[in-house]
Amino acid sequence: MRRTPAALLAALCLTITAAVAAAPPAASAAQDRILACPSIPSGHDPAVTTIVYRVARGFNADDKVMLSAFEAGWVESHMNNLPCGDKTSLGVFQQRWDYGWGTAEQIMDPVYASTQYVTRAITCDRNNPGYSAGQVAQCVQRSGFPDRYDQVAAKARTLLAEAARTASIAAGSRTDVNGDGRDDILTFTQNASADVYVAPSTGSAFAGTSVKWHDFFSIGGETASTGDVNGDGKDDVVTFAHSNTGDVYVALSTGTSFGAAQKWHDWFAPGAEIGAVGDVNGDGKADIITFTHNPAGDVYVALSTGTGFGPGVKWHEFFAPFGEYPAVGDVNGDGKADIITFTQGPASAADVIVALSTGTSFGAAQKWHDLFAVGAELPRVGDINGDGRADIVTFTCDADADVYAAVSTGTGFAGTTVKWNDFFCLAGEFPYLADANGDGKDDIVVFTKGATNDVYVGISTGTAFLGGAKWHDFFGLNGEATL
Ligand SMILES: [Ca+2]
Ligand SMILES: [Ca+2]
Ligand SMILES: [Ca+2]
Ligand SMILES: [Ca+2]
Predict the structure, then answer these.
(1) For position 71, what pLDDT does the model report?
(2) Ligand nearest to the Cα of 357, by number
(3) Considering every ligand atom, which ligand is closest to the CA of 226?
(4) Mind listing the pLDDT tens digit for each residue in 458-469?
(5) Which end of the chain has fewer CB atoms surrounding its CB within 10 Å, N or C?
(6) Residue 170: which region, alpha, beta or left (left: phi > 0; alpha: psi -120 to 50)?
(7) Among residues 388, 379, 275, 387, which one has the least CA distance to residue 336?
């Protein structure tokens, strides 16, 4: 264990350390510090919004309950884990320990607080189907100002969209689950049944509909990923539970299904951190990486032993803080996966930064491109020209539906505004890279979701992506995680 929930809590409570540290019983500690907040931060804490989102997804909250959580959190705390409040109110939802919400320490854990909110909101929504999101919030919060929640719906939607984007960060891991050299597609339903379906590549299509490879893996709010964690040539599935358990589960591929879920780590990528998979030490077994994605910007690694992940070790001190889009890929072709971050600012600040793996740590951050994946674009990492070095691709996923790429030279990414495809990935669709035809060059894949649930592939020629061809006509529904 490298960090404990208690340590996190202590960090959150810095402003009141003396009172908390000196008073062990929960209630008396709380009573010592019941003060109105001197002020509430004007902006939200992205770690809090991400946790609220993940917890709500974990309970399969519908859109209304999800929105209600963000309305309530904004009204009560501007989505901050406040160690203070009116009377005995605490935390993101300003819950009161003396009104049956839990102990003060529990309420100051945003996972616990979100769980309390969401479970009550789901019940209220079920019992009152005609309620607005704000009325659901009031039903849970019982505020003296019941109209405030619906009034902040627009702000809540903005924060919700940001949290959903953070939770869907996924930029590069192999998906050849049957080990035939062609990447396949997977979908994790992430609902109550938590099924995992696979459609293997035939080289010109993804075959099979409703072929279940696992019947309970990666529930809502978890991060589903892939990688060959035991080095047998078949990619396995990995899920980061986040929340307060920090568990990481693996299910090994047999070539035709995934075996039983096994816990390979019990404290990695907790809370709002971003988990990823890649072979950072080049031993043929995929390891796990987590970006704390907060102002500290730490990066931890846990190496695969083939049967588990070892202890979490810090491999970088500052990389991909919140707002940036972290990814993993072997950009210099030495066999060891490196870390990449897209800063995603406006055109003047859309840099791509790389830190190369030494096998035991990530080296100094280096800028490899200074204009790529602007704003809300969706960046991905993969070897699109088949030279063994991972390249970068960005999808606008808007009405232009453009796809730009820059190829690795081993010391930088070359090419600015070089379009590799001019119509691929519309708004709401999910793009990915995969070597669908097994020629060694990564192709573009898009899951349309929406009403059609199609999957299109644009084959790489090494210098461009061909027009999209439909490889599957029903795979990956709305709300599912597709890779
Ligand atoms: Ca494997
Ligand atoms: Ca490894
Ligand atoms: Ca490398
Ligand atoms: Ca390449």
Answers:
(1) 98
(2) 3
(3) 1
(4) 999 999 999 999
(5) N
(6) beta
(7) 388
